[in-house]
Design brief:
The structure holds three protein chains of three kinds. Chain A is an all-alpha fold. Chain A has seven helices and no strands. The longest helix of chain A is centred in the N-terminal third of the chain and has 25 residues. Chain A starts with a helix and ends in an 8-residue tail after the last helix. Chain B is built from five helices and no strands. Chain C has a single domain, classed as Helix Hairpins (Orthogonal Bundle), CATH 1.10.287. Chain C is 76% helix and 0% strand. Chain C contains four helices and no strands. The chains are: A mainly alpha, B mainly alpha, C mainly alpha. The interface between A and C is large, with 71 and 78 residues.
Chain lengths: 143, 146, 144
């Protein structure tokens, strides 16, 4: 589907990071799932109804690859027309990402930053180390 | 991992190539597929494979945690700082024409490079920090898990 | 089946496949009690949304949105819409960062509750709530 940048990202993330994280979590928690006594009928029904509603919603959608679909007639081609003389960067995805949608990318970077800080605060051990020092009177903690 | 000779030799050969590739993706991102997000993830993957094969301590000697923690913030600051610079130069926030007022197109080019570098630094540091946090935690295993 | 119906089915098959994937993820999130499995379900759900966006950006006969190096754009060349690519590219990296945050929360939950099963966490919570109620009732009885 011509999305070279996305394919690249997904390959790097999927091969490099997410496998390590999932396996790391499994090693830190439990290996097996306890069998649940809940019936799976209600979730199945809810999922089927939601799916049917969504399929009904797609009946009005434009066909795959249709060149006069709403997504292809407004801002997308406008970017493609303006990038060569306004930004002058061959890769249109990079030009939009960093220049036209710079605010968006700044926000996304801030989300990655916040998620990283959250992980550090939850499990990096910085906090527990400090708490141990406070509990131990010899190290001159607040206790 | 002391006895995994092939694994260690191959990793030593590969890690340098991975870092080189990450830098290529980072700075060639405006000509070919790539950019800060991809480069950051590839760079972090290089550190992660090093940590997996040569133990976490060795990886933390190369890339100490305090540096990682500072780089997380540095990337975002670089990005936001570019915007603030253009604000003080009399342009709109994140208008890269401010970086080279005589050639706005060159300014756009510089701006994209700096901003992508900021993104790359933050993504690398966050991914490595997450890996350090997960890996440095001793697993608590109860008997029923095994 | 006439050719119009066939064209319709072929043109919309992508949406239906993504809905199938999305419903698989939703089912895992709703039906499974294991928190790690819930995160996996959310990831599957997320992937289906990514694929929906990318498929919307496709233009028949189009190519990847990368211009020639000299920036002399041939007007006859059709490019796919780059905007969905931009949105999803950032969303993938943000997605893995938020997933790691969720996994970190699970690890902390496991340390406090010694389980990552939803119903067992609820049992522990109920027991704590009951003992707190009992304690407050005792305190109220002593005062009167």
């Amino acid at each position: 589907m011509d999305a070279v940048d996305v394919a690249f990202t997904e390959a790097a993330v999927g091969a490099g990071i997410s496998t390590v994280l999932m396996l790391g979590t499994l090693a830190l928690t439990a290996r097996s799932e306890r069998s649940s006594s809940r019936s799976s009928f209600v979730p199945l029904l809810a999922v089927l109804v939601t799916g049917a509603a969504l399929v009904y919603g797609t009946l009005d959608m434009p066909s795959f690859g249709q060149s006069d679909a709403p997504a292809q007639t407004h801002v997308g081609p406008d970017y493609l027309e303006r990038i060569p003389h306004e930004v002058g960067v061959p890769n249109a995805v990079t030009a939009i990402l960093a220049s036209y949608r710079g605010y968006d990318t700044l926000g996304e970077t801030a989300v990655v930053f916040a998620a990283g800080i959250g992980v550090l605060m939850l499990i990096s051990g910085l906090r527990t180390r400090r708490r141990k020092e406070e509990d131990d009177p010899d190290t001159g903690g607040s206790a | 991992m002391r006895h995994h000779l092939i694994l260690r030799v191959i990793t030593k050969l590969l890690v340098g190539t991975i870092f080189l590739f990450a830098l290529y993706v980072q700075f060639h991102g405006d000509y070919s597929p790539g950019g800060g997000f991809q480069a950051g993830v590839i760079m972090a993957a290089g550190f992660i494979i090093y940590g997996l094969v040569f133990t976490l301590d060795k990886a933390q000697q190369v890339f100490p945690p305090w540096l990682v923690h500072k780089l997380i913030a540095l990337g975002v600051l670089l990005y936001a700082g570019t915007g603030i610079y253009s604000l003080f130069a009399g342009y709109a926030y994140l208008d890269y024409a401010a970086l080279d007022p005589h050639h706005p197109e060159h300014g756009q080019h510089y701006g994209i490079l700096i901003v992508e570098l900021g993104v790359g630094i933050t993504v690398t540091a966050v991914m490595v920090a997450v890996y350090y946090a997960f890996a440095s935690r001793a697993p608590i295993l109860s008997d029923e898990d095994w | 089946m006439d050719s119009g119906t066939l064209d319709f089915i072929v043109g919309h098959l992508n949406y239906w496949l993504f809905i199938l994937l999305m419903m698989t993820g939703l089912y895992i999130v709703v039906a499974k009690g294991n928190l790690v499995k819930k995160i996996v379900g959310l990831n599957i759900f997320q992937t289906s949304v990514f694929m929906l966006y990318i498929s919307i950006g496709k233009v028949t006969g189009g190519t990847a949105p990368i211009f020639p190096l000299d920036m002399k754009v041939d007007p006859d060349v059709v490019y796919s819409n780059p905007l969905p690519h931009v949105l999803i590219l950032t969303a993938i990296v943000v997605g893995i960062a938020t997933t790691s945050l969720g996994l970190a929360l699970i690890i902390r939950i496991r340390e406090e509750y010694h389980t990552i099963e939803e119903d067992q966490i609820a049992e522990v919570e109920n027991a704590v709530l009951k003992s707190e109620q009992w304690a407050s009732e005792q305190a109220a009885g002593e005062h009167s």
